[in-house]
């Protein structure tokens, strides 16, 4: 019998098939149904249904002899491990009406013979590994009501023949790589209820013909490349309740006619290029619950008519050009939970009617031009979880009862002009997770105005007018990772109880009036990465226990009254910046300081009482950029090893007792005279320093010769100058290419001067004045060109868009770019430097041959070559690079746009993170700084309710990229819960990139990688690991029992 033969071909028949025995009727077998059919005078029972979903079947469907089962009408084998091709022989089942094979491992093309199944009403092939095009023969299935081919690797266009499926009610082709335009003939499918085409590469205009699909209830065209305007004909679809057009290239206005879609409950047009105002007519959508228009170019004011949509739960208008004031009518939205209006140009005050928003949980108004006071009525919002109003011009007091509901978690009001006392309700607001009051004029006594917050992660109270002493209660906030109290009027001593904050990563108490000794308990904070106690009146010494701060990268104890010697133990740490200047330290500078191989930003020991000779070991600090040894009593000579400090940009040894020659280095050849002032006897070939002579007699002899030669040299020099002037005058109107420079100067970027003139000429020539034919990419900050320089070197040149604001801020641009050009990490695209010119401003990077990870995963051949071993190694590279930006750069650099497009691969699939730091560098203080970076689908969820971009935003984006790497495509369904809603069991093996063979030796590492990805995707930032922790986890050797169940049986729920 055919079924028993198929069972025999399975590697390990599941338990459900145990009843399949030769001595029993198939009609009694599990998963088999029979029907009696007339056959002459008899009514024999024949097999009509095979239903074995979730049965763990491992095998090939092609082994089943379908011709022996001619009466089959129903096959349901979804969520198994069937592999191989879909058998063309299935076309013999002329009575088949339902074929459900989703969530298996089928590969190859959809056989065109399936078009022979004339009775088929349901065809479900989603979540497989199918490739090729949609066969035109599917147009023969005129009885079909549901066609589901979601989440495969189908490519090519949507065939015109699909328009013949006039009975189709559900068409789901989403999450494939289908390209081309939507065929206009799709307008013939007038019975359609659901049309899902999201997550493909469809382009062109949205066809007007969709307006004929009058029964359509859900239309999702998101995450494609559609262009052109929204067709007005969509307003004919009056039964529509879901319209998703986000993440496209749609232009033009929002049609006012959309106000006719009275049944609409969800409207998402975000992340497009839509312009013009929000139509008043949208206020007619009385059933609308979700309105998302953010990340467009919408202008004008918010219409008061939106206040009519009383069922509205989410209103998202962020990152547009909206002006005017917030209408009072918004207060009518009694069901509103999420209000997001940040990064616009909204003016005026916050309406008092906000006090009526009794369901509101999140209010985001940051980065606008709001003024006036916060309405006291906000204190009546008992469900409020998030209030983000930073970067405005708000004033007056904070509402006293701002935490009246006891649910407030995020209060970010920084960079405003708030004044008055700290609200009383904050003291008992135990729900707080993040509080940022920075750069306000709020007053209060820190000793009494704050309480115990068991969930608090961030407390930033810097640059306010707080006084009093650091409270003991802070020691009970054990979840704290960031504590900033700098630039206040805090007095007293540092309480030892702060040592209870074992998770603390940043502690800033600088610029206060703290006194006494630093408690030794502070040195037990093993996770501390940044410690700044500068500009206080602290006394005592630095104890040897400081070496316990094993993760400390930045230490600043400058401008205090510290004394004693500098402990040798500092040399055992991982410091990147060390400032202990302006104290009373004495003794010598320990040789061990030279062991700080990671010291990069600064070593400042100036203005102390240090003496002795400078240790030769300092020359080992090859990454150090700034070294200040001034205003001490150092003697002897400047060590010759300083010639090895190639990264130095500043060396100040003034006001010491140094003597002898200044080492010959490129830096010191052009050094400022002030760096060497007031020493005992420094000499060298530097302006302001006497030359070094071996003996007095030799010196006298040289001076005599110089006296004889001087008149001759002067004459020759003047002659040369005159000749040069004549040549310049003769050639000033000629535009010639620059002559090849000598081999000594041909290393272009090593001789770049500050404004990059050499680079400017060469690059403009190489790109033919930035001709479009050299463009290899376009982004939000500018266009990227491929340039081949005169010596044959290939570079990538990012020509930045310039605004008037940026043109006026050249100094900041230069200083920021100098910082970024010093970044050297093997998995970060090398930035050679920059050019700043009145006409152009551009950055120059190393050119990476292979292209982006995104492009690689889209290419079938390259994606297959990128095997599991390479993908795991790639994830390690990216994690190491981001960890470097977060934990080893000063200031730390938050990338803000970690995506598969910004990860470049060389020909060996080595990964390089690109575009590091660009958003921070371009406009770090602008009103829309957090909008400058971030790609939809990679943005951390907290950025929907807060303006503060943290390292944990990059961690989230990394998690998305890891899943994309594992799945072979963007994990959209996992992120929005489509796959992981808990109602269906999803095997991990089923979400893996089906183009690769099932992992064997990499199972444990792959398990740990996926587990890490989900930890990075935690909705709470504090629950995510740091990138340093993520990288350490990846490079650790997994145990053989990392995965407690067989990988083939592992489910997403178990991870």
TrEMBL record:
InterPro entries: Kinase-like_dom_sf (IPR011009), Leu-rich_rpt (IPR001611), Leu-rich_rpt_4 (IPR025875), Leu-rich_rpt_typical-subtyp (IPR003591), LRR_dom_sf (IPR032675), LRR_N_plant-typ (IPR013210), LRR_R13L4/SHOC2-like (IPR055414), Plant_LRR-RLKs (IPR050647). It holds the Pfam family Pkinase. It is a single-pass membrane protein; Single-pass type I membrane protein. The chain crosses the membrane at residues 705-730. It is found in: Cell membrane; Membrane. Residues 770-1034 form the Protein kinase domain. SUPFAM superfamilies: L domain-like, Protein kinase-like (PK-like), RNI-like. It comes from the Eukaryota. GO terms for molecular function: ATP binding; protein serine/threonine kinase activity; receptor serine/threonine kinase binding. One of its GO terms (cellular component) is plasma membrane. Gene3D superfamilies: Phosphorylase Kinase, domain 1 (3.30.200.20), Ribonuclease Inhibitor (3.80.10.10), Transferase(Phosphotransferase) domain 1 (1.10.510.10). The keyword Translocase does not apply. The keyword Transmembrane helix applies. Signal peptide: none annotated. It is an enzyme of class 2 (transferase). ATP binds at residue 799. Keywords: ATP-binding, Cell membrane, Glycoprotein, Kinase, Leucine-rich repeat, Membrane, Nucleotide-binding, Phosphoprotein, Receptor, Repeat, Serine/threonine-protein kinase, Signal, Transferase, Transmembrane, Transmembrane helix. This is non-specific serine/threonine protein kinase.
């Amino acid at each position: 019998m055919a079924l028993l033969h198929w069972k025999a071909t399975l590697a390990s028949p599941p338990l459900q098939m145990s009843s399949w025995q030769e001595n029993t009727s198939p009609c009694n077998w599990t998963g088999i149904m029979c029907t009696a059919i007339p056959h002459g005078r008899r009514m024999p029972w024949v097999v009509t249904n095979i239903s074995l979903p979730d049965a763990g079947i491992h095998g090939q469907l092609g082994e089943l002899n379908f011709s022996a089962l001619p009466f089959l009408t129903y096959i349901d084998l979804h969520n198994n491990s069937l592999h191989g091709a879909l058998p063309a022989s299935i076309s013999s089942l002329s009575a088949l009406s339902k074929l459900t094979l989703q969530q298996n491992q089928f590969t190859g093309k959809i056989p065109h013979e399936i078009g022979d199944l004339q009775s088929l009403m349901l065809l479900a092939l989603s979540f497989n590994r199918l490739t090729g095009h949609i066969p035109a023969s599917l147009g023969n299935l005129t009885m079909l009501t549901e066609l589901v081919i979601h989440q495969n690797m189908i490519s090519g266009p949507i065939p015109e023949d699909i328009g013949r499926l006039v009975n189709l009610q559900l068409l789901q082709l989403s999450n494939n790589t289908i390209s081309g335009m939507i065929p206009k003939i799709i307008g013939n499918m007038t019975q359609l209820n659901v049309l899902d085409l999201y997550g493909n590469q469809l382009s062109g205009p949205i066809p007007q013909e969709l307006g004929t699909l009058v029964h359509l209830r859900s239309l999702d065209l998101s995450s494609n490349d559609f262009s052109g305007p929204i067709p007005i004909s969509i307003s004919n679809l009056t039964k529509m309740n879901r319209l998703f057009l986000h993440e496209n290239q749609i232009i033009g206005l929002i049609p006012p006619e959309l106000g006719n879609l009275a049944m609409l409950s969800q409207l998402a047009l975000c992340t497009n290029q839509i312009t013009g105002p929000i139509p008043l007519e949208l206020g007619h959508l009385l059933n609308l619950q979700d309105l998302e228009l953010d990340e467009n170019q919408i202008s004008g004011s918010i219409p008061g008519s939106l206040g009519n949509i009383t069922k509205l739960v989410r209103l998202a208008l962020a990152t547009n050009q909206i002006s005017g004031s917030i209408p009072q009518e918004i207060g009518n939205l009694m069901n509103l939970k999420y209000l997001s209006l940040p990064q616009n140009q909204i003016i005026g005050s916050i309406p008092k009617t906000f006090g009526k928003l009794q369901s509101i949980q999140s209010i985001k108004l940051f980065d606008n031009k709001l003024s006036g006071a916060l309405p006291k009525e906000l204190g009546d919002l008992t469900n409020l979880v998030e209030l983000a109003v930073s970067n405005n011009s708000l004033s007056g007091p904070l509402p006293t009862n701002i935490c009246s509901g006891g649910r407030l978690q995020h209060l970010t009001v920084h960079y405003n002009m708030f004044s008055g006392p700290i609200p009383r309700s904050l003291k008992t607001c135990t729900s707080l997770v993040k509080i940022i009051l920075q750069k306000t004029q709020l007053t209060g006594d820190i000793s009494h105005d704050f309480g115990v917050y068991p969930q608090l992660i961030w407390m930033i109270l810097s640059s306010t007018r707080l006084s009093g002493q650091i409270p003991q209660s802070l020691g009970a906030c054990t979840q704290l990772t960031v504590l900033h109290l700098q630039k206040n009027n805090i007095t007293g001593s540092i309480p030892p109880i702060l040592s209870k904050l074992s998770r603390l990563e940043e502690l800033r108490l600088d610029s206060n009036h703290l006194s006494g000794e630093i408690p030794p308990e502070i040195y037990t904070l093993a996770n501390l990465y940044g410690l700044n106690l500068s500009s206080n009146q602290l006394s005592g010494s630095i104890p040897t226990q400081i070496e316990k701060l094993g993760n400390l990268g930045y230490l600043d104890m400058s401008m205090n009254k510290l004394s004693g010697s500098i402990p040798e133990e500092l040399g055992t740490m991982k410091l990147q910046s060390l400032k202990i200047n302006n104290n009373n330290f004495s003794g010598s500078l320990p040789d061990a300081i030279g062991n700080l191989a990671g010291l990069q930003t600064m070593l400042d020991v100036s203005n102390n009482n240090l003496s002795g000779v400078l240790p030769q070991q300092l020359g080992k600090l090859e990454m150090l950029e700034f070294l200040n040894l001034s205003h001490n009593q150092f003697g002897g000579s400047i060590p010759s090893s300083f010639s090895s400090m190639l990264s130095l940009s500043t060396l100040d040894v003034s006001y010491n007792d140094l003597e002898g020659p200044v080492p010959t280095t490129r830096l010191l050849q052009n050094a400022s005279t002030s760096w060497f002032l007031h020493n005992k006897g420094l000499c060298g070939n530097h302006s302001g320093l006497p030359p070094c002579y071996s003996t007095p007699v030799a010196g006298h002899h040289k001076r005599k010769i110089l006296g004889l030669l001087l008149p001759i040299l002067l004459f020759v020099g003047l002659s040369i100058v005159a000749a040069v002037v004549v040549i310049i005058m003769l050639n000033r109107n000629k535009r010639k290419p620059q002559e090849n420079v000598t081999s000594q100067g041909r290393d272009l970027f090593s001789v770049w001067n500050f404004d990059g003139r050499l680079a400017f000429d060469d690059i403009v020539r190489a790109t033919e004045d930035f001709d479009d034919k050299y463009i290899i990419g376009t982004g939000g900050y500018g266009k990227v060109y491929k340039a081949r320089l005169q010596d044959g070197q290939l570079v990538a040149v990012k020509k930045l868009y310039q605004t008037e604001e940026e043109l006026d801020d050249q100094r900041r641009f230069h200083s920021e770019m100098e910082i970024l050009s010093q970044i050297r990490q093997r998995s970060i695209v090398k930035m050679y430097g920059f050019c700043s010119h009145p006409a152009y401003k551009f950055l120059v990077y190393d050119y990476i041959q292979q292209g982006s990870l995104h492009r690689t995963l889209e290419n079938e051949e390259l994606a297959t070559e990128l095997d599991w071993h390479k993908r795991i190694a790639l994830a390690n590279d990216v994690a190491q690079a981001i960890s470097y930006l977060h934990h080893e750069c000063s200031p730390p650099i938050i990338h803000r746009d970690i995506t598969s497009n910004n990860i470049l691969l060389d020909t060996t699939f080595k990964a390089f993170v690109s575009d590091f730091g660009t958003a921070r560098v371009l406009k770090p203080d602008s009103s829309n700084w957090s909008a400058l970076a971030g790609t939809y689908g990679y943005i951390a969820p907290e950025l929907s309710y807060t303006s503060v971009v943290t390292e944990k935003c990059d961690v989230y984006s990394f998690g998305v990229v890891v899943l994309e790497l594992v799945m072979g495509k963007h994990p959209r369904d996992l992120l929005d819960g489509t796959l992981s809603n808990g109602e269906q069991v999803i095997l991990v093996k089923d979400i893996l990139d089906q183009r690769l063979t099932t992992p064997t030796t990499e199972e444990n590492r792959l398990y740990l990688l996926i587990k890490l990805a989900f930890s990075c995707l935690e909705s709470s930032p504090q629950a995510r690991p740091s990138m340093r922790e993520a990288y350490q986890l990846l490079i650790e050797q997994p145990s053989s029992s990392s995965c407690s169940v067989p990988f083939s049986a592992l489910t997403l729920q178990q991870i």
